[in-house]
Amino acid sequence: MQPATAEHVLATTPATLGDALFERQGERYQLRVDGLTLEVTHTFGVSPLQQYLVQAPGGRLQAFNYAWDARPAEQGGQRWFDLYEEQAPEPGEAMHWQGRAHTWNHMCADCHATDLRKGYLADSDSYTTQAAELTVGCEACHGPGSLHIDEPKTYRLASLSSTAEELTDTCATCHSRRSEIAEGFRPGRRFLDHYRPVLLQPPLYTTDAQIDDEVYVWGSFVSSRMYAEGVTCSHCHEPHTAAVLTSDNTLCTQCHSPAGNADFPTLRRTSYDSVEHHLHAPGTAAAQCITCHMPERTYMTVDARRDHGFRVPRPDFGGDTRNVCATCHDHSDAVQGNAWAAQAIEDHFGPQRANNLAASLHAGTEPGLSDLANDIQAPAMLRATALASLAHGHSWQSRQAIEKALVEDSGLVRLGALAAVHRLPEAQRNRALLRASTDPLRAVRLEAVAQALAAPGSEVADSAIEEYRAAQVLNGDTPEAQVNLATLHRFEQNQLAAESALRQALEIEPDFLPALVNLADVLRAQGRDEDAGVLLLRAVEGPAVSAEAAYAYGLWLVRNRQQQASVTWLQSAQELAPDNPLYVYSYALALNAAGNHAEAINIIELAASDRHARDAEVLFLAATLRRDAGDRQTAAGWARRLSDIGDPRGAALLQQLAAGSG
User: Fold this and answer.
1) How far apart (Å, rounded) are the C-alpha atoms in residues 223 and 411?
2) How many angstroms separate the CA atoms of 504 and 488, rounded?
3) Sign of CA dihedral 222, 226, 231, 237
């Protein structure tokens, strides 16, 4: 980030950009758009693109949606382009250039400045953002220079940190998809004390953990065997420029070769840079290690980035996974293309594939996810993702995996396990949440609070609640944080504060569905159900309907005796989120109440036989609907299933059916 002067602006001017004019006036630059003349204050980025920031009310800097392609002309660069060429966001939408997704203070500043203090003021919806430097300076990675001056032997700027984990944590603060939970990170501190990373789950990643959305680098890197063996970013990148050390296969053969590398003695010593291994003509792009093991995705139209999972290609996976062979070998039919590539690999390397731990994530089976969660040799990121994916599981084995992971050494594993902590029996869950709320890592403590807020009767440390509150205030310029604050206020029995936070969320994003649904629930609790219905109708009539909104509106219709109409919306909720047993349960109940008894039985029995075979409420409803229909034999079968999972209602139903009553 630099001042917008002739020295730093790379783009040609004047330029007509849609309905806007970007022009130079003496030593200054300005943007004429929507009847306004706005000062361009800063350039943002250098390569492969440069964006331009304009001053906006409330201390905001907004990034305009047209950017300059800084690549050489022979690569298609040296041109203006619209970041949203296919579909331009409308004014008022978050992705519009005047919206929050283009607000530098909110979206960009933490990674593109040194020692940032965002300074968001919710009361005035404004910013007083400050930073030591409005760019990535030396101290962003090396820490305060004053420490080196005072204690040069202890704080040796050249060495950054003593361990691979600490060094990677420093890079992770910007090269990861995460949310900030506390300001003031310094090199040498723990990443999870200041940031909460996303896990390797769809829709940000494919089902086999390849990058999909804009997730940057850290997530896939820490899921790799290379990271597990101690490889750091600087083994391949020059730290000050992030450029790769070499642009050919010598980058990889510094370790992966017949000579090996003394720093990594467990490496298999063999020739990888050979036709026998890569199957392509030497020196071609297809023979590059990164072509097959680091597939590329392009973001922001021109910014190509590579997956850092370093995995063996698996075109046999199919589904939403990316077949890297299809990058060059064009097969119009995706299924046929995957089959062709899988067969070609098998023909050359044989039917046995190298162990790909992400295969368990792709398959998504409960036993496979449990095995990955229990594998202490697997990277923590993969294990954490497997644990979070077990949130909708049912088996005793997967519950054991969650239990065990909650007390493991890895903070990332503990974080993933908390996402599924609701699977534990209530007393055990509550003990786990109380313990996790005093965890050494802030991200784990905050996740414990978040889970406790969703589990009535849970207790967590007061200090963790205050940390959670502070994290939401820090991110108060997002509707998500305001909804989280509202949930906390309701936990504390402060309905007025909850309503205020939810209305603030809707000020930030008027159609934010979680805010609409939660505000409707607050109003319902206050006896204002008619007002709640207006909000819920607005939620389901918007451009996108969530399962939560459809479910809430369906229940509102039930409360207001519109039984037939409720069925439609409860069906929609069940179809949008088939993994949630509450939705299929409510849908079947609504069908039955509307007189569609046979359809209700069919729906609930399908769920009880397959996806929700161990859900007590689903099994209980299957048994009682069959009982009420006069089919005692089938009802007894469901009651036995209910009893088998330890629910006492099963035995009571069996006794009732045997006596011929009920």
Assistant:
1) 14
2) 15
3) negative
